[in-house]
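Researcher: Structure for this, please.
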Amino acid sequence: MQIIIKHSSINFSTEIFINEKNLDLNKDLIFIRGRKLQEWINPNSDWKGVFSELVELIKTNFLEIEFHGNYFDYCYLECANKVYDENTELGLQESTVLTVSLSLFYVKAFRLV
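Model: Predicted structure, token format:
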């Protein structure tokens, strides 16, 4: 299952495509809409975290994610993946045997003036 996550840290907009079909963030994964990536990648009291939510939504334990966004947000996503893996190994995560393959598609270069 190929997933593309397009995220802008400037206006906190996110689009998620599963097998080239755009998810309706008003219906599916509503917690993501209008939030910073750091708010929705990890679990909290109202949210299971993006990896668990995607597994539940698409009913698979393998996620191939292509991330479109800046490098720093990609690093947050990578860290969340590592935490998810560690929690699964420790039995702290409900989902079993999740494999996440992350790739960075686009890095926007910018210069601080």
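Researcher: Any notable elements?
Model: The chain has one domain: 2-106. Residues 2-106 form one domain.
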